[in-house]
Amino acid sequence: MRKRPCVMIIRDGWGYNPNPQEDAYNAIKVAKPPVDAMLMANYPNCLVRTYGEDVGLPAGTMGNSEVGHQNIGAGRIVYQDSVRITVAIRDGSFFENEQLNKAVEHALKNNSKLHLMGLCSDIGVHSLLEHLYGLLELAKRKGLKKVYVHAFTDGRDSPPTSGAGYLAAIEKKMAEIGVGQIASVMGRFYAMDRDKRWERVQAAYECMTSGIGNKARSAAEAIKASYEKNETDEFIEPTNIVGEDGKPVALVEDGDSVIFFNFRG
After folding, report:
1. Binned average pLDDT, 10 residues per bin, the chain of 265 residues
2. Whether 4 and 114 share a structural domain
3. Within this chain, do residues 72 and 107 fall inside the same structural domain, yes or no?
4. Which residue numbers are catalytic?
């Protein structure tokens, strides 16, 4: 018997929506492509889930192109970094991680600061707040008091004005754990630029290291000022949180430790 080729075709963005009330907004259903109809009628087919635990993500978390292609290529469920980190926090092995402990111990030894920076939303595409909380808990257990969070607001994967709620939740959790303070706030447009726009990254860097940029007395004030200018979370300009003396509460300086808590670059 002559072997026939087996072809796998990735139709990017070609999903399935079971809700008929939304058919008018479904370009594929409206177009009724004949080749697709022929394939569905004459060849075996089934639906596969592209989100949550079926692709190695936390339950209910939406998938993305990277996750989808990893699972397709492996031919099995590939547990994502986000899940591995979460499991490590819950079973306690996270707090024994050699490199994380070295970062905390370096700050303790040098009487310096620990800076935690990353995307402060809980959508699960780039980060999860539970991972930030795990780092705060680690610092607390080790007795480190100088711990500062540089909050990158989302607004792209999350709703555009959800940042205020996320930062309020972080501040509440820091109070519960007993360590941590927000030192700067900035949108991912600057801190997580992926369009090779150096001027954006430079603005984020100079804010965290030199105190160059906007100033606010609190994270809530920084976000409020941005919203008043019709700038949503993604586009919040790099802003230092300052004390009563008008100086930044913390800058990244020589001798400090820095941990990025995003699990996806």
Report:
1. 85 85 90 93 91 87 88 92 92 98 99 98 93 99 98 97 98 99 99 96 99 98 98 98 98 98 91
2. no
3. no
4. 65
